[in-house]
Automatic annotation (TrEMBL):
Homotetramer. Residues 230-502 form the YjeF C-terminal domain. InterPro entries: Carbohydrate_kinase_pred_CS, CARKD, Nnr, Ribokinase-like, YjeF_N_dom, YjeF_N_dom_sf. Residues 9-220 form the YjeF N-terminal domain. This is Bifunctional NAD(P)H-hydrate repair enzyme.
């Protein structure tokens, strides 16, 4: 799913009115009606008090359309105008006049100097936030902030229209008290990037995109900086297997890493590479890990360094399709030197994680030796060592995009919504859960991506697909283990189920959910 920028949304609205020969007021009516339909389908006329708070711009106009339809259908509605300026939009004014025709109780005017004595909200009520939309460019004043805090203090269910009021689409907020904490956000046409960033995702617990009929050609033809990755985006990436294929058709993945006490990291990455579909997997480890590796993972081949406890020389006679390097590696001087010598001669595709990244961050000149589209999978601290400190999420994304363009690498920003960055493009993953915050899950991700590249997936496609499979496998395992007991090995065990899930029809998914609930 494409995530459109603020400017692209404005352009889409303008083109839609022109190509469909409708007015901006008609488009607002369409948007407000869609919100009403969403609420009406769920409430079926229930007389729960609904408090609709409207600003005086177009977001407020959407709120007025919603309030009018709710009143017409007999709902218990109180409409408020957050009247803190004299700059009302044209479409707001039109819908302000229209709502007067369906109710004797005009919307209550809340001036920015009044108190809140007339605003009584119970915990069981519903608040609709239609105060500010995507056009907000400065922090709300103190009075509006107090209103938002009153909502939060009421504990009433809060539904935001398009975006929680007080958020910006393209820059960080200054004060959390100046932002609505929404339980649910109905976003027009597509979600917003800020729904998926660490500092701003908490302002809406859930979201849904409503189709308001923006011109289809515009939606299809417009390139966006951000894409949201779900099953439907990764399905076209999947490579089916031929009947007479053999293991040589699916590549040879080499996993280089491990040190005394950290052989398990290589074990996890190697198992994940094979479970994701690589034809062959070889582990390159220190001598101390030879017996444990052979015993615990007999499907893998093993090459050992001459050193007992660490990697000191990365040399081999095999011809791998891809090398995954860094898991459990350590940063000893001899290991760092071995990686440097390897990078100076290597032409094979690379996936680099963990201590491989830490070595690169200590000697950034080595970054110039990386083949194009090398995949880097840092956790936040490893990322900071590579790109430097950032002030906020937007600054972080800018630094990573600049880094990616400079070295022509793919960077995976691991987190609750893992983001794959390549050049100016961002790919936001939708699978995964908090149970993945446990040792070894990063090693598994490295193995999955390495295994996909071995099968001749392009590195970017392998990364997007791999991140999705990694999260989906964890979601499947979660059903049996819960957040606290989920471990990295469980994720490997359900990679196969994640593949199978790609081809389940919606009714099959529903049946599976019902079976799991029994």
């Amino acid at each position: 799913m494409k995530l459109f920028s603020k400017e692209q949304i404005y352009e889409g609205d303008k083109l839609t009115t022109e190509r469909q020969n409708i007015s901006s007021t008609d488009l607002m009516e369409r948007a407000g009606t869609q919100i009403f339909n969403w609420i009406h389908m769920r409430m079926q006329g229930a007389q729960v008090p609904i408090h609709v708070f409207c600003g005086i711009g177009n977001n407020g106009g959407d709120g007025l359309v919603l309030a009018r339809h709710l009143l017409t259908h007999g709902y218990n509605v109180v409409t408020y105008i957050v009247n803190c300026s004299d700059k009302r939009s044209k479409d707001f004014l039109i819908n302000y006049d229209r709502i007067k025709s369906v109710t004797k109780d005009w919307p209550k005017m809340l001036s920015c100097s009044s108190d809140f004595s007339d605003v009584v909200i119970d915990e069981k009520d519903i608040i609709v936030d239609a105060v500010f939309g995507i056009g907000l460019n400065r922090q709300p004043n103190d009075w509006v902030q107090e209103l938002f805090q009153k909502w939060r203090g009421s504990k009433a269910f809060t539904l935001s229209i398009d975006i929680p009021s007080g958020l910006y689409t393209d820059k960080p907020i200054e004060d959390e008290n100046a932002v609505v904490h929404a339980n649910y956000t109905l976003s027009f046409q597509s979600p917003k990037l800020i729904f998926f960033l660490p500092e701003t995702s908490k302002f809406t617990v859930q979201w849904e995109a409503l189709d308001i009929g923006i011109d289809r050609d515009y939606l299809m033809q417009t390139e966006t900086e951000v894409e949201l990755i779900s099953k439907y985006e990764v399905l076209p990436l999947y490579k089916p297997r031929e009947k007479f294929s053999h293991k040589g058709d699916f590549g040879h993945a080499l996993i280089v890493g491990g040190s005394y006490g950290k052989i398990g990291a290589v074990n996890l990455a190697s198992r994940a590479a094979l479970s994701s579909g690589a034809g062959l997997v070889t582990a390159y480890i220190p001598k101390c890990g030879y017996h444990s590796m052979q015993a615990s993972f007999p499907e893998a081949m093993v090459i050992t360094d001459k050193d007992e406890e660490r990697i000191t020389d990365i040399s081999f006679d095999i011809e791998p399709s891809v090398v995954g390097i860094g898991v459990g590696l350590g940063t000893a001087d001899k290991t760092s030197k071995a990686l440097e010598l390897f990078l100076n001669t290597n032409k094979t595709k690379l996936v680099i994680d963990a201590d491989g990244l830490n070595i690169l961050s200590k000697k950034k000149a080595l970054l110039k030796l990386l083949p194009e589209q090398t995949v880097l999978t840092p956790h936040p601290k490893e990322l900071e060592r590579l790109v430097g400190e950032w002030t906020d999420d937007f600054d972080k994304l800018k630094k990573v995009k600049d880094f990616s363009k400079t070295y022509k690498v793919i960077v995976v920003l691991k987190g609750a919504n893992t983001i794959t960055v390549f050049g100016d493009k961002l790919y936001i993953n939708t699978t995964g859960n908090p149970g993945m915050a446990t040792a070894g899950t990063g090693d598994v991700l490295t193995g999955i991506i390495t295994g996909l590249i071995a099968q001749d997936y392009e590195p970017l496609a392998a990364t997007i697909f791999g991140v999705y499979l990694h999260g989906k496998s964890a979601d499947i395992s979660l059903e049996d283990y819960g957040y606290q007991s989920l471990i990295a090995s469980h994720i490997i065990e359900t990679i196969g189920e994640a593949y199978i899930d790609l081809f389940k029809q919606p009714e099959q998914e529903q049946q599976q959910q019902e079976q799991n609930a029994q």
